[in-house]
Each structure stands twice: as structure tokens, then as C-alpha cells.
């Protein structure tokens, strides 16, 4: 049957390079973007304080997940050091704040620079290493960094860590969760757009080429070493920046927050969301951030009285099972599910899209 | 002094055993097993709980070994089998998922608290004029016997020959009629068994707890220093790791034992990234 053949040809094949590179294609997508923006801007009006806190947590997770996905999904350098980089940002900002009482933006910038510097060193190492070795190097980095922070905290700081003041941007005081929400939303938007833009520029394409096949990329003239180094610097400094933001948001810095489970939950975000997809990072970050609360809520509704540490175990098993299940059964994650569902909706009531695109 | 040497030998044996499990599995299936520490401590818990519920030590240990082999087979059958041949990061992230599941299981099934694997022997043994802690002697002997058994299996038996063949060229060994799936499955069974033995012995000489999974990190560091694909390398590198850790714990602070091995590893990664005994082809440089 001819139908089976023609059904696979996408009707929306872009006809020019400009269209391929465009961030948003077509009126429908623009409408979606505008509607989503309005919904996000109005969101705090409909949520209780608790849910605004969760939304803020999602926004911070989105920043970290987008950065990790650039590194692990696009450049194929598996990083198990996400928690370490978050911690580096938090400690850099926190120590500066404590020692010199620097203004909030300066502390954030310092965090980004500190993360970038450590990322530079790891990137230098990774230029000589292949994927698996990079993963283990970052794993070792995690334990080295957290040991160092526990040492700093035990010797120079109080046992509870650093207490951070409420930050202010000069014109804007960040006190209520709603103020934080708009601030974090703006920054997350900048990071998401930045990632999308990087991926369609020559920089991002170099990262992807180096990740897909380094030897082939080198043969084609892609500077693979430069690509590996730059992706590490960019993503680590973004992650450290997110770490500093989250430290200010929570109000404390302590090495206990940056345990290995945090690195794994970020890895879970990009695997569940979709490896190599910015949309996937967002979906995964929201999913994984909300998952423990949704689970707790379900247990509450079912009136199961579960002890707190058993609950922590259940959370871990769910995380691990999600990682394994998505890797085995849906390696492209929620982003692929999203794409399938939305294209099915777009083609409705037909099952396939015809070659001429008449289903639109 | 004698007891310090014994400590180093016991720690060395445990790290080497755990590292050999990781290397065995890596050589045949090209999957870097991050979950080594979790597998070890999980089996350690199984044996500890078995002893607590009244089973004698000589029965609980084979029980734990059986559990480890079953666990290895299950991990291969349900997950690893499906990702063989995929890019290396898939298998790696898979073992991260497995490690997380095991962590959660340890919390739910065993409470995650601190417990031990008592062998039921006196605390000290006198050898002439020196008194040595018996658990360390048991751990050292057990670990080195297991290491010898694995080395003999790998170098002198048919199964070991098949594993080496698969490690060298999967395609060619499959063409020669070798059952690759079976060989890889057995390497996982033996790899997890080695991890489980290491976990039991660690529990026997110190304790079993969630935090004890950090022995997996030390073993991984030993694997990398020695070279991911070299059994000899991991055994020698485990000595470096065990020695530096024991010295740090004795003279500086037990909390910071990882600092020295990590520093050595970073130096190795800079000057000789394929490890002390790893093959250079293994490590295709960009």
C-alpha cells in the first residue's frame, strides 16, 4: 500500500536554511508560546504559597537541567558532578557574602565565574578523556568537592553552614515567593532561550558534532577539543549560577544539601525529560521536582501512614526505576511522548499525515 | 605496626575484590558499573540480617553469595541485555539507576542503619607477642582467597578463556560459536558475586550502612588508576588506594580519606589517562 510509505514523510519539511534555524515555526507555535507565557505570568495568582514555592523549585531545577542536558544530552559528556557544581556556586556566593557582604548580583556573577573555572579544569581533563572517563572524573569531582566543603564548613564556619540575607537587586526586593517567582521565571526564560539559541548556532552544532562522533567531527574540521572545553565552561557556570540562586532562595548554604542523590535527580530529569532536548529538560525538571510531593500527596490521600525514612526510600526507588524504565523503553523521554501526542492531535481525526500535508 | 599492616592488607583485598568485579563486567559488556558499592553493601545487609535472624555465619555467607549471583543474573537479564551495543553512556546511566533503586531498597528493607556481620569469633588473636583483631584477619584471608579464585577462573578455566575472548573481540568470538549472551551473563553473575563478597567482608571487619557504599568509590578510583580493562592493574592500584586511605585515616582525619586517592587519580588522568596497566587502544584519543 502506498499509504504506509507516504505517511512517514513529514509535511513540514523546511524549505530554507533560515526556516530550519528559526526557533519557532508557524503561527500555531507562536500562539502556543504566547498562551504559555500568559499562563506562566498569571500562575502565582491561582496558586497557594506552598505551590509557588514548588514552582520556584521547578524554575531553579529547569536552569540546572537545561545546562546538564547541553553537556550530557548534546555533547554526550555524562556528568555526575551536577550537585558539585551547584555546591560550588552556592559556596562561592555564600563565602563572598559572608566575608565581604557583597551585593547580590556580584555574588551571583562570582558563583558563575567559580563554576566556569572548575568547569574549565574538568574540561581540560575531558579533552583527553572519552565519555566513560569523563563520567567517572565528574563522579570523583563530586566526592572531592563535597569533602572539601565539609572540611571548610567544619573548620571555618558554623555547623549549620552559612546563613544568607534576603537579596535585593536595588530596584527590586526579593522577599515574597511571588517576587522570587517572577525573578526566577525571567532568568529561566533567558537560560532556556539561550540554550535554544546556542543549539542552532555554530557553537551548539560543534557540541553536537563532537558528541555524536568525535573522530568524524575532527575529520570534518570541527575543533573537538575547543567544543568540549567550551561546553564544560558554559554549562558549569550556568549550573553554579543556578546553585547560587537556589542557595539565596533557601537562605542557607550547607554541604549536606549537595549529596550525590541531587546529582542523580538531575540526571533523572534529563533522562525522563528527553536526552538532548531543551523541551525535555523543562518537562523532566518539572516532573522530577514535583514527583516526591505528588507521591506524598497520594500516600496522604490513601491514608497510608508511612515513616519518613521509608518514604525517602520509596522516592529513591521511584527515581531509579524511572531512570531505568525510560532508558529501556522510551530513550527519548517525555519530549518524544509530547511530540507524538501533539502530532497526533494535529492530525486528528486522521491517523496519519498525508504526504501533501492536507491533515493540517 | 603489625595491626596497621593487617588493616592495609584487609582494605586492599576488599577494594581489589570489588574493583575486580567492576573490571570483569566492564571487559565483557563495556558497561562501567557505578553501582559496585551499592551492590556490595546490599549483599552485606542480606548477610547481616540473616545472621541477626538466627542463622549461623557459615550458612549466612553462602546464602549471601547465592543472593549476589541471583542479583547479578537479574540485573543482566532485565536491563543490561537490552542495552548491549548502545553508546556507553546508556549503560552507565542504567547502573546509576540501579544504584539508586538499591539504595532505596536498603532503606526500606533493612532500615539503612548501621549494623555488622559478626563472624562469632574472639575479638583478638594472639600470634606470638602481637595481638591482632580477628575480623581483619578473616577479612584479609577471605578477600585474598576470593581474588585468587577469580584470577584462577579468569586465566585457567574455559569460562575465563571465553570471557577474555568476548572482551577482546565480540564479533569474532560470536562467529566462532561462542554464546556471547551467556558469557556476559556469567561475567555479571561473577562480578556481582565479587562485589557481594567484598560487602560481606567489609561488614565483617567494620560495619554495614548506607554510608558504607562509599567503598564503591574507592574501588572505582582503583579501577581507573589501574586501567579499566586490567585485572592486574586494579589489584595493584587498590594497594595504592588502601595504603593512602589508611595513612590518612590514621594520621589526619578519617573523614577526609578520599582526598589522597582522588589527587592520585587526577594526576594519573592527566599523564596517563588509560591507567597504569590499561591498554592504550582501549583509550581512543580524539
Short description:
Chain A is mainly α and 360 residues long. In chain A, 74% of the residues lie in helices and 1% in strands.
Series of secondary-structure elements of chain A, N-terminal to C-terminal: HHHHHHHEHHHHEHHHH
* Helix percentage range of chain B: over 70%
Give the CATH class of chain A: Mainly Alpha
Estimated radius of gyration of chain B: 18 Å
Count of the separate structural domains of chain A = 1
- Strands of the largest sheet of chain B, in order across it? 1-2
Determine the N-to-C terminus distance of chain A: 22 Å
What string, H for helix and E for strand, traces the elements of chain B in order? HHHHEEHHHHHHH
The amount of beta strand of chain B, in percent, is under 5%
**Number of helices, where a helix is a run of at least 4 consecutive DSSP H or I residues of chain B:** 11
**Main pleated sheet of chain B:** 2 strands, antiparallel
- Helices and strands of chain A: which structural class? mainly alpha
N- to C-terminal distance of chain B: 47 Å
The rough form of chain A would be described as globular
Description of the molecule:
The complex is a heterodimer of chains A (360) and B (286). Chain A has 360 residues and is an all-alpha fold. Helices cover 74% and strands 1% of the residues of chain A. Chain A has 15 helices and 2 strands. Chain A has a two-stranded antiparallel ribbon. The longest helix of chain A is centred in the middle third of the chain and has 27 residues, at 224-250. Chain A starts with a helix and ends in a 13-residue tail after the last helix. Residues 1-11 of chain A have low confidence and may be disordered. Chain B has one domain (2-271): Orthogonal Bundle (ABC transporter involved in vitamin B12 uptake, BtuC), CATH 1.10.3470. Helices cover 72% and strands 3% of the residues of chain B. In chain B, a hairpin with a 2-residue loop joins strand 1 and strand 2. In chain B, helix 1 (2-29) runs antiparallel to helix 10 (231-251) and helix 3 packs across helix 8. The N and C termini of chain B lie far apart (47 Å). The model of chain B has no long low-confidence stretch (mean pLDDT 89). The interface between A and B is large, with 52 and 47 residues.
